[in-house]
Amino acid sequence: NIRNWETGIEHKRPEEGVWPFGITVGTSEQPQQLRTEIRADAVQEMHYSFSATPAGGKRLQLEYPMLADDVSRQPTGIGVGLTIELELERDYFIIRAEIANGGPLWLTQFCGGRGELLSGDASRECESVWIPCRGGVGYGELDCETLGLPTYGWGWSDYSGERGGIGVCYVNRQGIQWCFDLDKTEAGLSTAWRLFDLRGYWHFESLMNDEQKKLLSQPLEPGNTFVTDEWLVIPHAGDWHRTADIYRKHFYSAFEGDCLTWEKLPQKARELDVYVGFWVAENEIGNSYPRKVYNHLDRVAPQLQELLQQVEVDAARVGVGLTWFHSQVGRYPDFFPICEAAGGESAWSAMIADLRRMEVGFIGGYTHLSYQHPAARNYIPEADVQGTIPWINPTVGNRACVDNSAWAALWRDELIPAYRGHGLDMVFMDEGHFPWGTCSASGAAHLHGPSALGILAGNTRGILHLHRLFHQGLGAQSLIMTEGSGDICGRWTDLHFAYRRDPSVAFTLPARKYGRVLQALHAGNDLQVRSEAQAELRSEINAMLAAGEFAIVVLQHDRPLDGLAELQRYCRIRQHLREAKAPGYPQGFRHTMGLSVSDPNLVATSFVDECGITVVYYARADLSGEIQLEGDQLGHLVTGRPTLRVDLQKGMLEYWILDREEGPGSSR
Questions:
Q1: Which residue among 34, 396, 415, 451 has its CA within the 20 to 30 Å range from the CA of 424?
Q2: CA gap 201, 146 in Å, rounded
Q3: Are 636 and 613 in contact (CB under 8 A)?
Q4: For 441-483, how does the pLDDT look when each residue is reduced to its tens digit (9 = 90+)?
Q5: Domain shared by 245 and 291, yes or no
Q6: CATH of the domain at 8
Q7: What gap in Å lies between CA 637 and CA 631, rounded to an integer?
């Protein structure tokens, strides 16, 4: 069982679930011929021993020399060694497994921790489930699902109630694709993580034929071994913040020197307040012509100049991005030459010169790393996935294998130099932190090779390599901005935007910059234009300021802009925070940690660094209330429990700076 002695909560009952692991073995035609599940009543040959860790903790070693089928008792050919560690200064378990397949069958699934977990609450009312990039939901709102990682989420989840909860993490050093399953039970939440079996991973499985569905099983072959990465089980007396804190610690340890930090983030990314995007020409029309032009290139700089004058923001704190400027609408990766209907190459050169004279922070262009159309000039047959992945997007082409030497050479030698030659120092990568589908094609250029482990890690390895090529090819201060964000494959990307507000993303990995589209200013095609009331826009901007996010605005020359007064207010407050040298803002985002408020309509978030604490707060209704701070929860020596009394009207936003040496400052 798993019991938290601090709270008294039993998070896992002894008789419940497949713990610590289960396996299936078989063939591609019959993947589950034999099954072994380690349960409380299971009978398997097992040897165990205890030892001390180097830090003085305890280590339990379990050895299963030959697992037998639960029913027939037939040997599976699989041996497993399991290590469980509990350190003196840690209140959570670290688990690793070493798996050996002695054959003759394939190991078609290895699952860890399958079974019911409990929050300790008597009802579902206050329970929540959090997964970064998926957000947090109440138990009643949770959809039972399988998440494919690292594509559709990050490496931790948390299930908490009023008195505490339990988190599960997998620190994916090897970049392997794996699945996390969630299901509701009568008393709690069933969770499991699994390897080698990708069924349920991809959102487009309905498009797959029978052969492609077989490839969702990438089993560990006879004669091979595999050592898992760290699997963390975290019973705690808090909420999801505790799980995220522990995951962050292990993430930075695992990828030390191989991930972005705030210090490594280019200055122009750190100083970014507003990203202004321009859709140049129509894209979602198949291969039909003529294309509608949203923004003729000779109108880009004048529109930006008008915005800068009205908002009064320093151009150096503004980034510019251009999307769908290529001539061939559906022939990726032919991103150049520039669309003639929008002005072509000459208008592009003039626009770049105008933007550089305005001294904007950076200029970026659209790209996509993993599509290629057979009719494209830059089509690479050696990178073809050979039917192992269905044709997902008929407009822009089939998937290309990203873990491929010929594909990497195309980007290194032709495409990236073309982006640099067109005056760009940033790229916006559509679906940029992970490609769809798992290539298992054969050929010398396919670097993943034929093995399951090579195929399952191929997407991560290939995308990271392409990200490095872009940073090298565009220059040391170049930026990568991605749709969405990833912890494993996105660890060298600088800027991200998401479709939903999810504080757990910036809280988990605060070293990057996260942005949100201001819908009231979004002037794209007809389906994406949405006008908002001023009060709603102010609420959106308040939430962005309280999360340290940068603003994303998309312009179109034939549509008027609304809400510029609110955007100006946002930029002024960001400037005030800089002038005040607000500690930790925005890279030290700690969300609600260490804060308590007297009114649910009073929203407060904290930012922390070695110099002190900044609290940003705003009112969702007229109110008088208090904010109280627990400095010890934020790692700062703040005497007592500093309290700020506030009187706010609806929509007002202010901030409170607490200097570590001088003590609490005044509200601004």
A1: 396
A2: 7
A3: yes
A4: 999 999 999 999 999 999 999 999 999 999 999 999 999 999 9
A5: no
A6: 2.70.98
A7: 6
